Amino acid sequence: MKKRMVSENWSIADAVFSGSKSGLSKWFFVLLGVLALNISAVSQDTLRMDLDEVLELAGKQSLEAFKAENVYMASYWEYKAFKSSLLPQASLRVRPFTFNRAMTQRYDINQNIEVFREQQTLNSYANLSVNQNIGITGGKVYVDSDFNRLLNFNADGLETYSLTPVRIGVVQPMFAFNETKWLHKLEPLKFEHARKAFIREQQIINRTVVGLYFDLLLAIKRSEMAKSNLKSAQELHDIGRKRFALTTIDKESLLNLELSMQNATTDLVMANKEIARARFNLSSFLRLDQAVVLFPEIPEETLGLQIDAMEAVGYALESNPTLLELRRTRLEAERDLERTVKEGNLNIDLTASFGLNQQADDPSQLYTDMLDQEMVAIDVSMPLLDWGQRKGRKEMALRRKEVAEIEITQAKSDFEQEVTLQAIDFNLQEQLVRTSKKSEIIALESYQLTESRFRTGNADVLTLTSAVNARQNAQENYINNLKLYWQHYYRLQQLTLYDFRNQRPLSASFEEFHP
C-alpha cells in the first residue's frame, strides 16, 4: 500500500489548452462544469492499493465484517452456555426471614371443634443443591441440603430447628420425550454451522468488494479513455477544419469530427461523475476517510488455476454450511416426530430420594440420632379419549418429515449442480480474460493505425469513429472479464470453503484467530 500527496489533474483543462487558442471560449463553460469534480481532490492523500490489499482491509474493518464477527461470537457463547448446561449445576437458595401474623384455623382438642387463633411466626430457610441432567435417559439426579428455623411467638417464643444435611434423589421419566438427547445432536451442529457460515460470509464480503473495486477501476479507465479521446478529437478537429478549408473533406465529415469532440467531452464529465460515485461506494464499504482518494491497480495476472468440478463438489459437500443446515432440518423433523409420538402415549415418572434429617429445639442436637428420610413416587398418566387428536398430530409430523426429506434431496441436487457450473464458469473465464486482453491490444493498435491514416488523409471519419468505439469496448470488456473472473473465484470459495490458491480449507486460517 503506497500513500503520497498528489494534485489531481485538471482533466479537460489539459485537453483544452493543448488545442487551439480559438477553442478556449468554447470550452470555458465545460471546464467550469467539471472543475467542481476535481477541485476537492487537490492535495489529498492518495492510496494505491491492489485487489488483495483491499480484500484484506475489507475483512478487517468493514461493517459487514464486524456484523459477521458478532453473529459468530453470539453463536459461540450460545454453544458455550449449552456445554456448561451439561455439567453439574450448583445453586444456593436463602430466605433469611418470613414473618407471618394471621388468624389461622386450628383444631381445639379439648373442645373437639375448629377454632380461629392468632398465630405469629418467624421462619428462616436455606437450601444448597447440586443437580446433574442425565443425557441418555432424560432424567436428573440431585444432592441437596437444607436448614429451617421456626420461631413461634404464641408459645412464649418457642424456637425449633430442622436440618437435612444430605439428601440424594432422582427424577426419571420412563417413556417421555428426551429433550436433552436431541440437544446433544443439534447444538454442536448449530455451532458448526455458525462457524462455517462466518467463513462463507467472508467470501460474500470478498465478492462485494471485487464488484466495487472493478466498478471504480472501470470508471477510472473510462475517464482516461475519455481524456485521450478528447485530446485526439480536438487535434483531429483542427486538422479537419484545415482540410475543409482546402475542400478535401465535406461539411458532413467536419460536423462528425465536431460531434466526436462533443461526445468525448460528455464522456469525460460522466466518467468523472462515475469515478466520484464508485470511489465513494468503495471507501464507504472499507470505512475509509472520504478525504482519501483511492486508486485501484489492475490485477493483470490471473491465478492460472483449472479447478476440477467433481473435486469442488466434494469440498462443498464436506464444508458448506448449506449442507449442515439440511442435516439440521432433517434432525429437527425427526425430533418433532418423536416428540409428537411420545407426548401422546403412556407416561410414567419415577421420583425417589433418600436422606437424613432431624429436628430439635437446640441446634446442637440436630446431628443426634438422625432419622432416615425416604420418598418414592410413581406418577402415571395416559390419554383415554382425545377424538383423534394424537393421530392427527402424529400424521402431521410424519408428513412434515417426508416433505423435509424431499426438500433436502432437491436442495442437495441443486447445490451440487450450482457448484459444478460455477467451477466450469471459472475455468472458462480465464480463457475469456486472456482473449479480451489480446483484443484490447489489437484494438489499441488498430486505433493508432487508423488515426495515423486519418491524419494523412487515407481514412474517413466513420472508420476513425469505429476504431475509437472498438478500442473503448475492448478495454471495458477486459476489465469486466477480470471482474467476473475474480467474482467467480470467490463465489467458488463461498460454495466450497476451500482456498484453491493455497490448496487448503479456509477453516485452517479461521481457527488461527477464532475460538
Automatic annotation (TrEMBL):
Keyword Chaperone listed: no
Chief localisation class: membrane
Subcellular location(s) per record: Cell outer membrane
Pfam families, A to Z: OEP (PF02321)
GO CC aspect terms: cell outer membrane; efflux pump complex
Alphabetic keyword roster: Cell outer membrane, Membrane, Transmembrane, Transmembrane beta strand, Transport
Molecular function terms from GO: efflux transmembrane transporter activity; porin activity
The organism's place on the tree of life at top rank: Bacteria
PANTHER family: OUTER MEMBRANE PROTEIN TOLC
Family recorded in the similarity comment: Belongs to the outer membrane factor (OMF) (TC 1.B.17) family.
Protein name: Outer membrane efflux protein
